[in-house]
Design brief:
- The protein has helices at residues 4-14, 18-31, 63-76, 80-96, 138-154, 160-167, and strands at 100-107, 124-131.
- The protein is mainly alpha-helical and 170 residues long.
- Strands 1-2 form a two-stranded antiparallel ribbon.
- Helix 3 (63-76) crosses helix 4 (80-96) and helix 4 crosses helix 5 (138-154).
- The model has no long low-confidence stretch (mean pLDDT 88).
């Protein structure tokens, strides 16, 4: 039976493997160049030190709205996640005017069968990049987000921390 430390050792061993180098190349190509900065209205500069203070907002999507969103997902041949991610990207675009929108989302990090029953933190972050234009139909955006998500999931093992270190974004 595998333990968390065995999984960590396995991941360390795979870090220098050819498949991991291919994943690194994918991410560096996908996110290379100047990365856009989203300046949201009402956002404040980051404090000099960490305060760990924050807030949260609770909201509820009514069952009828959920039904409509699921119907939209079906009509676009995508998932509810894809529809909501597309809507979120449109919102970010409208609030900032930025056409090159990147959103990070987490993945479970348990895509190996031997990791399924192990207690421990395997979460990783993937970045979904979309180019939005005023003439882009929602269905086309949703299909693009679906394609981007599926590609990113195929490269989800590359550690986000390593990617940030290599890209060194502002």
């Amino acid at each position: 039976r595998m333990h968390y430390r065995d999984c960590a050792a396995l991941m360390d061993a795979e870090a220098a493997s050819e498949p991991m180098r291919k994943q690194e190349t994918y991410w560096l190509e996908k996110l290379g160049g100047v990365l856009p900065e989203l300046r949201l209205p009402g956002a404040f500069p980051r404090p000099a030190g960490d305060s760990f203070t924050g807030a949260h907002v609770h909201t509820r999507i009514e069952p009828e709205e959920t039904r409509k969103l699921r119907a939209l997902a079906k009509a676009t041949g995508t998932s509810l996640f894809t529809v909501l991610m597309s809507v979120y990207k449109i919102l970010l675009h409208r609030l900032t005017g930025v056409e090159d929108v990147l959103v990070g989302t987490i993945v479970s990090g348990r895509n190996k069968p031997e990791f399924e029953d192990i207690v421990g933190m395997f979460v990783n972050t993937i970045v979904l990049r979309s180019r939005l234009r005023p003439d882009l139909a929602f269905q086309d955006l949703a299909k693009s987000v679906r394609k981007t998500t599926l590609e990113a999931l195929q490269h989800q093992d590359y550690p986000f921390e390593s990617l940030v270190e290599k890209l060194a974004p502002r």
